[in-house]
Amino acid sequence: MKNIFVLLVFILTFQSVSAQLFSKEKIRNLDNEDKKFLSYGYFLGFNSYDFNFDYERDRADILVQKGTGFNVGLIGNMRIHEYIDLRLEPGLYISTRTLEYDESYFEGYDDFKESDLTREVKSTYIHVPLLVKFSTKRLNNFKPFIVGGVSTALNLSSNEKNPDDNSAGQFRTKRNMYFYEVGFGIDFYLYYFKFTPSIRGVFAINDELVRDMDPNSPWTGNVTSMKTRGVFINFTFQ
Asked: Which intervals hold domain Outer membrane protein beta-barrel (predicted)?
């Protein structure tokens, strides 16, 4: 259903954009939109989160099965130069990842179960990025840009304070995360609003893993760091 929804959004948007941006008339829509010192909007989108692992010893990799998550949030934009904007984009990002462990991690554990080989990691982030947007000169009714910045996130699904660990089936992650971000997109100036599809990569700065009590735990003992990384595809309306 999500793939069908994305396809329909793309087709409808492409038809509207084609009609308004590439017609012979070349009428400039929202001609004063970029002259505002402050502007606001909202976004909807999708995410694909992953984990990047570093290990203590050379063993089989922990595999990450990624899912497609959902994004929604608000935008505050401050114009500081003709081609430079400062943006705050607080949003809610929901994601699920499944970790798959190789059986070699459980050598010597006679009582391990099949369920011990997988751990589901659910994340509900309140994600707050501060971004700098660098735009090109407007071309008719569209304007490409690149964007970069830093962000912080509060994981509402974190069980960092849970006294139980993986020995009781609880895979724990930290509550507070920090990222840097980089991406690009295109502003399309339609009749009544500005529509912006964009894609952005996010990369965690700090380790997200909470270790088990046992320093030799098969789930966390060989992990030096576990850092989130991901891709956001957002559709912005201003």
From this structure: 33-208
